């Protein structure tokens, strides 16, 4: 693994941990000024957010939701791309969950792109 991949893996892992630990403040140092986010909903293309503040506000809202439980299934990085395969639960019922993936791009130690997808 080269240095870029290691940096990307570190940033993407820290990003995911903010959601698992419900620590939205941990996102502050991770999001770039020119960040673009494509959310998983609404279908078929998801909402698009542009700019650091818009992306940060959206992600912080999710990370601060105590009733949401994120679990990483896999976190992978190569060069400037990171992939997080995750599972999201919103109750203890087995039916109340969804699996998805975030494809992230990191530049200069900051997330500049986040594309979210879910299994339909």
TrEMBL record:
Gene3D superfamilies per the UniProt record, alphabetical: 3.10.450.50
Span of domain SnoaL-like: 12-113
Protein's name in the database: Nuclear transport factor 2 family protein
